[in-house]
Each structure stands twice: as structure tokens, then as C-alpha cells.
Amino acid sequence: GSTPRVALVTGTSSGIGAAVVKHFCELGYQVLAVDFNSAGKEVADAAGAAFFQADLTDPLACREAVNDAVRRFGSVDILVNNAGVQHVSAIEDFPEEKWRQIIDLMLTAPFLLAQAAWPHMRKAEWGRIINIASVHAQVASPGKAAYVSAKHGLIGFTKTAALEGGTQGITANAICPAYVKTPLVDNQIADQAKLNNMDEQEVVEKIMLKNAAVKRLIEPQEVAQMVAYLASDAAGAVTGASWNIDLGWTAQ
Ligand code: NAD
């Protein structure tokens, strides 16, 4: 048969990224997992993926990650921009360095990675850019100025990439999940519990699922399945769109 697709996935040492790496490996793709945390190596090894350690707030590291995929596998067909962090603080107190870190990691890195992967996708006349945005790319919550701004920006980048890639076989889409069961959310649950003097169950029910029609957290695997669809040949007509997997949050 034909050579398997090459996928570069960022933010892979836990949560959604780890689930995407595992799922892509199961589909037979060649996967480069990219993370600044060396724990990403064990996750990659267990799944059968290659690992490249990089701090994606560094523009050079973004380009090196793509170079590494090309060196190992000859190309990049699928780019999943997933690495992300959260910082909760009122605008009045929001540290400038945190703002810059979040914009660098969650908006500039996806641009730089897409830019570096683009010529390879163009040559193959086939490419998939999948940006893990958030329900916070559609609506805001107080205390999350940088995160909400980066994620809203990522939707704009997704739409632009879709328009530019349309005649080149390159699609670009965003996925917008509500709360997914990952370490990122576990930390928030613990913080909110302390802040609001609630137990963790109460935080989930009263804060995290307040706007949800489906009253449960999302599993990382559920997001990975949507990523896999958008990465597939079947999704060639699907581009420039934001795909909510948000428990009905934005339906109201
Ligand atoms: P997570 O904390 O489990 O994983 C994030 C990954 O990014 C980690 O592996 C971490 O090491 C990596 N990372 C952080 N900073 C990095 C850097 N500078 N360079 C390279 N890698 C770095 O979080 P998650 O919940 O799986 O989140 C993944 C993505 O999904 C994020 O973009 C997040 O905003 C988005 N998201 C998450 C949720 C949720 O509820 N968990 C909801 C909507 C969107």
C-alpha cells in the first residue's frame, strides 16, 4: 500500500495530546509527539510514536520540531496544534509574562508550525491542520484573558489557513471542547475548590458543568476521535470550521 501519513502532534505528555498520539498510532500513522516535558517520551514510546522535546514558546524550537519530523519520516501531512496552558487571574493583576507565554504557545506556535509544515503539505497536495481551540474560543469566562484571547485568535488563524489552503489540498479546522478530564482541568478543580471553599465534586457540578446540557466531563478519547475524523480523507470538504464538543454549552 501507500506510505502511512505523517502526523506531528504537540502537547503530548498528557491529556488530549496523549490520546491523539495513541489513536493516530492505532490508525497506523507515523507520529512525532512534541512536548517540553520529558514525560512525553514515555507516552510516545508506549504508543509507538517518535518524540521531540521542545519548548514551543521558542520560535526556533517550533521550526526544529517540523524539521525533525521531515528528517525522520520525509514529510508532515497532519499537524495537530494542541499544547496549551492556563493562567487564571483578573486583568488588573494579570502578569504580562504569563500573557506573553500563553500567546506565544497557543497562537504564535500554531502559526509557526503551520508555516514550517506548509511547503511539505503543498508539495503532497494534501494536508490537515487541526487546532485544538476551546469553548473559550467562542465565549469568555472571567479571569482567563490570555487564554480566551489566544483561543479566539486561533479561530481566525484557522479560517485564514483554510482559505489559503483550499486550492492546495490543505484543510484547517478547529475543535472547541468544553471541560475535558485532563491534568489541566484537575488542577483547576483543585484551585477552584480552595478558592470557593467547596469540595471537588461541587466544583465540577456547580462551576464546570453550570452551562452544560450533558452533565459530565469529556474524555480525552472523545476529542481524539474528532481529530481523527478531521485528519481523514473523508473530511476533505470540511475546512475553516469550528467543531464544538462542548456538552451543549454554547447551545444556550
Ligand atoms: P494537559 O495539561 O494535559 O496537556 C498540555 C500539554 O502541553 C502537556 O503535555 C504539556 O507538557 C504541554 N506543554 C505545555 N507548555 C508547553 C510548551 N511551552 N512547549 C511544549 N509543550 C508544552 O492539557 P489538556 O487539557 O490535554 O490540553 C490540551 C489542549 O486542549 C490545550 O490547548 C487546551 O487549551 C485545550 N483544551 C483543553 C480543555 C480541557 O478541559 N482540558 C478544554 C478545551 C480546550
Question: Short summary of the structure?
Answer:
This protein has 252 residues and is α/β, with parallel strands linked by helices. 48% of the residues lie in helices and 15% in strands.
Uncertain spans:
none
CATH class value of the largest domain: Alpha Beta
**Terminal residue distance:** 47 Å
Give the SSE string.
EHEHEHEHEHEHHHE
Helical coverage, percent range: 40-55%
CATH topology of the largest domain: Rossmann fold
Largest sheet: 7 strands, parallel
Overall number of strands: 7
Gross morphology: globular
Coarse structural class: alpha/beta
Question: CATH superfamily membership of the largest domain, which one?
Answer: NAD(P)-binding Rossmann-like Domain
Give a list of the ligands. nicotinamide-adenine-dinucleotide
Structure description:
With 252 residues, this protein is of the alpha/beta class. The protein folds into two domains: 6-179 and 219-245, NAD(P)-binding Rossmann-like Domain (Rossmann fold); 182-217, no CATH class. Helices cover 48% and strands 15% of the residues. It is built from eight helices and seven strands. It has helices spanning 15-26, 39-47, 59-73, 96-124, 145-165, 183-196, 200-208, 220-231; strands at residues 6-10, 30-35, 50-53, 78-81, 127-132, 170-177, 242-245. The protein has a seven-stranded parallel beta sheet, sandwiched between helices. Helix 1 (15-26) packs parallel to helix 2, helix 4 (96-124) runs parallel beside helix 5 and helix 6 (183-196) packs across helix 7 (200-208). It is globular and about 55 Å long. The chain starts with 5 loop residues before the first strand and ends in a 7-residue tail after the last strand. The model has no long low-confidence stretch (mean pLDDT 97). Nicotinamide-adenine-dinucleotide is lined by residues 11-17, 35-37, 55-57, 82-85, 105, 132, 134, 177, 179-180, 182-185.
